[in-house]
Write a structure and sequence with these properties.
The protein is mostly helical and 150 residues long. It is built from four helices and no strands. It starts with 13 loop residues before the first helix and ends in a 10-residue tail after the last helix.
């Protein structure tokens, strides 16, 4: 039994954008603290860690800012309402192919791409890249051929 009459209006995507902006603020403080700490310890700011933490600030601020902008343009979803019931989110979410082998091909390609430089066998990176192109093309075009064509 739901209480549709006493619901307060909720903000769409609030949890998502707030969490990402909060992480951006945390990493901004962490980057400033790390830069200050390394400057106190070594009389120079360590550039790699400071740059990595600063890039994390950009990553989370960009993602959170986009979701904040998007939250002003979309309607409230059932996920945004703490009192929503399961049937309110019913509907089609997309079409997925449970029988597809192409994600496995893409996973093998990524494994080869990372394994090549790790073993200093750069030829594996080339094989992985070629296999990745084949895997992504097969995955994208899977429903354009044979019995599964639309």
């Amino acid at each position: 039994m739901s209480n549709h009459g006493t619901r307060k209006p909720t903000k769409p995507l609030f949890t998502e954008w707030f969490f990402l902006i909060l992480l951006g603020a945390f990493f901004a403080l962490a980057a400033a603290g790390y830069a200050f700490w390394t400057w106190l310890e070594y009389e120079a700011v360590e550039p790699i860690g400071t740059a990595a933490l600063t890039l994390l600030v950009g990553l989370f601020a960009l993602s959170g800012g986009y979701l904040l902008k998007l939250s002003r343009e979309i309607e409230t979803r059932p996920e945004d309402d703490p009192y929503a019931e399961q049937h309110e989110a019913a509907g089609e979410y997309g079409h997925f192919a449970p029988w597809s082998w192409w994600p496995l091909v893409c996973g093998l390609a990524v494994a080869l791409i990372f394994l090549g430089p790790a073993l200093h066998a750069w030829w594996l990176l080339g094989i992985g890249a070629a296999l990745g192109v084949i895997g992504v093309a097969g995955h994208v075009l899977e429903f354009n051929r044979r019995q599964h064509a639309h």
